[in-house]
């Protein structure tokens, strides 16, 4: 899946006998190696029992310090009223969590408004970010002159940072001075659409900008997946009289299933963690309607120094995303069975 | 000759560990420093510094043209003082305020920090900065030397934490070309509600939307803030324990701002900074914006502009204003007395040289400097200095900045027509009172 695109393609063309390249092929190779390894005792004397763990250690240390430890610190913080600069950081038990569900608390309305914003954004952006790049990948997978150029063009926005695209689009989409409304006016369409200051237009802008920005990335993943589908499957399907749609439905889609699962999962997670776009383009406006969960967590935790509540929110967000991801994996496994 | 292990006798080892223990104990004691034991009383309060050469770090948020002027002043100070070397670091204000506490608690903070008046209480409560009462007393500074609100704003729990450097109100910027186009005298900007409304009607007659109202804090929200005080309202009660920005006066003020949109004097959905950019590109006639824009406008000689005091639209004069203050940062390992007294020398020196700072587009906080004839030559800045006796500075209470943001959110909803002004402000106040209550618990005041 992650092999260089050209190489993967060449391999499948040159060795038509290779069936499922990535996962299925890897498994027998490993077991074969293990079996070969078993009878000969020579390599065993080369290393002690802890050697594999020693090889794992460097990564484990990095993961422990920068991955696991912060998770546990976050859990710890979420049980306190925590401003690292104040001498008293009282233990508050589960209060920070309870507050998220008590309608008269300080954070209740803001929290759920931000959850709503994140949910709207995710529901609107994920289908587009899953389907559009697939179409693009199918087109870019065909051979036509200038194909490499178009591949580069569609991927280009992804290399820009969020600060760049945020500022760029904030000015382009300005209701009164922006270029987008100016262009719409030239062709006789309404030229006063409030792209960044009123809903639903703000959602159109945020989703549109995000799709423009990141769809090239998903398209590249799909493209790699497409090139891993063996060509003889298509040949066989043609022999059996399959139409183009049949081939897409019964060869391409099943062949892409692991890739699809990867794309859907990472896209949902990325959309649910959206922050920069709304922070820069709409600034949460109107009111706080487009302020996302991550944006609110950053505001509470870093601007208002309320790390305890921010940590509790982060953990609830994580739990929500775990539920979604598990459901996602279940659905795909169910289909496989 | 090398030391063999045998040389390290048990006795020496014992002595060594005792010494380490004592050093550690000292270190712990130093960490436990707070206001009382730290060396804020070092030196003679900033009159002069005669100790060994020290180098000081200073942090500020002057990212605009004001930053260059500040650096020039620091260079001048460094050449005049052979035993003090100051290094300046500049960050965007938002990053700066987020970064400072962490830097200070890890011992990488600066020695001197520039801070807005409404942040002083928060940072004092969070023990990021230390009291500077002795600077004020040693230099003989008192309330009569400064604008009263600004001087009082530096107090938290009966201690002084900031020495005011400048004051920056909002002003009323006008586009002379558009005024002429509408048949108005470009040298007579409106000064009150009826003159302003007549001017807007004249502009509207020529198809010009004359007063773009931004829904964002910069600087639509600040316009709303000014109007609340002009109509006789206030954001908070006297001791800043309750939010009052849903009073009838405040509702009237915000309604007036929101009505500019419905009356066609402002387009709907003005984006961040679009009001100011429109003024510069001859689309918007009037804009209430910060004094800091004077230098920006001076860079574009093709724009015909002027600046005046904000017209009196409500029952009295008032404008939003804030103030930059010098603070001395706490050091977790204990302050170096020499550094603290050198810092005080610098603060005093710059405060005395704040006339040069006025060229950066700020009004000096010291009365004596404002009365200097050379300050009068800075026409535009001087015009806005006249607003200061009536300016509405934010109150000094820990965590107040976050609460004021709720007013700006309510203003945003009202101007965008998302909610009726009263509804938006009522919702904002309900939330603000909860946050104030939360702040009281957090900061224990």
Protein model, in words:
The complex is a heterodimer of chains A (337) and B (445). By secondary structure, chain A is mainly α. Chain A contains 15 helices and no strands. In chain A, helix 7 (147-155) crosses helix 10, helix 12 packs antiparallel against helix 15 (307-336) and helix 14 (293-303) packs antiparallel against helix 15. The longest helix of chain A is centred in the middle third of the chain and has 34 residues, at 108-141. Chain A is globular and about 75 Å long. Mean pLDDT of chain A is 85; it is low at 1-41. Chain B is an alpha+beta fold. Chain B is built from 19 helices and 11 strands. Chain B has helices at residues 10-31, 65-80, 93-105, 117-125, 133-138, 148-153, 176-181, 193-205, 217-230, 248-262, 274-280, 293-298, 337-352, 354-358, 367-370, 373-376, 379-385, 400-415, 421-443, and strands at 54-60, 84-90, 112-116, 129-130, 155-156, 159-160, 163-175, 286-290, 305-308, 321-329, 363-364. In chain B, strands 1, 2, 3, 4, 7, 8, 9, 10 and 11 form a 9-stranded mixed sheet that branches. In chain B, strands 5-6 form a two-stranded antiparallel sheet. In chain B, a hairpin with a 2-residue loop joins strand 5 and strand 6 (159-160). Chain B is globular, with a radius of gyration of 25 Å. Mean pLDDT of chain B is 87; it is low at 1-40. At the A-B interface, loops of A face helix 3, helix 11, helix 18 and helix 19 of B.
- The residue-averaged pLDDT of chain B reads 87
Q: How big is the Rg of chain A?
A: 25 Å
- Total strand segments of chain B: 11
CA gyration radius of chain B, whole angstroms: 25 Å
Order of helices and strands of chain A: HHHHHHHHHHHHHHH
Tally of DSSP helical segments of chain A:
15
Coarse shape of chain B: globular
Are there runs of chain B of 5+ residues with pLDDT below 50, and where? 1-40
- Mean pLDDT metric of chain A: 85
Distance between the termini of chain B: 63 Å
The amount of beta strand of chain A, in percent, is under 5%
Please describe the biggest sheet of chain A, giving its number of strands, its sense, and whether it closes into a barrel.
Answer: none
Oligomer: heterodimer
For the largest interface, the chains and their residue counts are:
A-B, 32 and 43 residues
Going by helix content, strand content and strand pairing, the class of chain A is mainly alpha
